[in-house]
Structures are given as structure tokens and as C-alpha cells.
Amino acid sequence: MAGWGKRSSRGRGFQAGLDWEEDDDEEEPDVGWSPIDADPEVHLQWDHLREVYRGAGCPSTPSRSWIGVRGRPGISWGSYMFEIKVAGVEDLVRVGWSQAGSSRSVGSEVQSYGYGGTGKKSTGGKFAEYGPPFGQGDVVGCLLNRAQRFVAFTLNGEFLGKAFPIPASLDGEPLYPTVCAREAFMISGYFGHKQTRNAGLLIGYRGYWPVAMASEEDKAETQVPVQPLTKRLRSEEVAAPKPLSAAPKPANSDPPKVRSTIIHLPSERGRSPLSSRSKGSTAARALQGMSEDLERPYVRFTNLPRAVDIRPVRVLR
Fold first, then answer.
1. DSSP string of 13-64?
2. Rounded (10°) CA dihedral 94, 133, 54, 23
3. Partner of 193 at 20 to 30 A CA spacing, among 64, 148, 293, 303?
4. Model confidence, pTM
5. Share of residues in the chain with pLDDT > 70 (%)
């Protein structure tokens, strides 16, 4: 296959016979194929317009059975996608999502999900029939839905159905765009770009954003895996803060000023300011305090049995 330059060189394309200048220090890209997360046989092509490594391939049959490259960014939440377009006539390509640090032969390990040119899907080295075969000129879309926990693919814009469920144990673990091939190959990756037509994708699919437009909260830009997110507690599961001890209100004095907590103001003489009130009681007591988060005083009230029990309470500044 003609038209190739040295690996990871930022030239004008894969052109033979040029004197390429190698980058001494490869940098981790924010978007596109990563030169530091690619097998040595893989060549990358720099896109000057989008400023990403968009092309990937190998000019000759490698000594190993499968070689590949991972892209950026990794997606840990949300619904995103990227696309590849196959350029070679006899390219046998597999594309999908994988974890950082795993084999770049996508689909050969657990928690690595691929769709190959034979029409089969694979994960953990196990293959199953999935969709039509694809080859030169075809556009494969790789869809990742972290909210509903599944991976899916499109072929030339046609949705092929859900391919794999993602286990809940992977919540918060980023998955990265990945492509691999068994022989000489050449593909172009489309990760998205704000200033181009169709957000930088060739076809796209409704409900999915290109990975280049992922929010900071949804992506992991490095190849270092992040720890899974802790369980998100519902509001009713969050324990209420314990009130601080408070002295009884002196006669003819202003209400005490309290920070970072709330106190009960006594409404009856001789009643303890922190004594509990049973549900349905008419002994209504207002809650007074100051929020450090809001940086302004506020007044809240307990659930009162009757509307007439609600009364204003002065707050000190």
C-alpha cells in the first residue's frame, strides 16, 4: 500500500519518499488517535485543519496477528460516538471501545467491545453474529451509552441494535475509541469538530454527541483509569446534621446567631430549646440559622400542623 510516512509524524499526509521530522516528545492529545497509545507498526496521519491525528493504518502486513491504536477522549458518562471510514480494498478492521491498559485488539478482552468487518461482534475473545460485513468505503459508527449501559454500532447510518451491555461495575471507568486490524489497513477516524458540518461526523446518529464535544464531567482525557464513582445517595438517604447545644433564650435579648447549623427557638416558657416535638403538636417552633454556603442568613420552619402557627422570626446579620 503506497502513500505512507513515518509513524506519528505531522506531515502533509501519507506520502512516500518525504523526509519526515519525528516528534521527539509525543504529547497526549485531547482528541483523536493517540501516538503514545498505538502499537509500533501503526502509522498516524495528522489533520492540520482539525489538529488531530485522524488517519491510522499500517502499510504492510505486520508480523503480529492484530495491531491497533486507541483514541481520545475516554468516555465515563453520557451518550457519545465516533466514526471510522475504511479506505483499503481488503482491509479486515475491527472497531469499538476498550479500557485503557487493555489490549488494542478491541474485543479480545473482557470489558472490551468490538464490531469487525466480518459482521461479527466480540468481547472477551468470544464472537457472535451481529450485523452485515463492511469494507472499503463503509462508515462505521461506534455508539456508547453510559446512562443505559450499552454499546451499539451503526453501518452507513443504519442502527444495528444494541451489541453489548456494560456491567454496572464499570460505572465511572472510561472507555476509549479503539481500532485494530489483522493485515495492512488504512482508516480515517471522525471524532467531531465544532466548526465543521455535522459536528465533524460523516453521518452521526440522533441522540449521540461526537466524543470531541464531551463535557469535562463526562470524559477522561488521559489513559490512566479513574476510580469508579461512589454510590450517589438519594436525598432521603442523607443523614440530617445533629444540632448543636444551645442555651435558653435570655429575656429581652436578640435571638442567638448560629453558623453551619440550626437551633429551635423556644416558644413556651420553661420549655427546653432542643426538646423534641411530636408530630401533630401545636407547639410550633421556628428554626433560625445562617448558611455559610449561601453566604447569607436564612430562616426555615419545621413542618407545622396549621398554617396559623407560622410566624416570622428576625435574623441577625
1. SS-TT--PPPPSS----SSEEEEEEE-TT-EEEEETTTTEEEEEEESS--SS
2. 40
3. 148
4. 0.65
5. 60
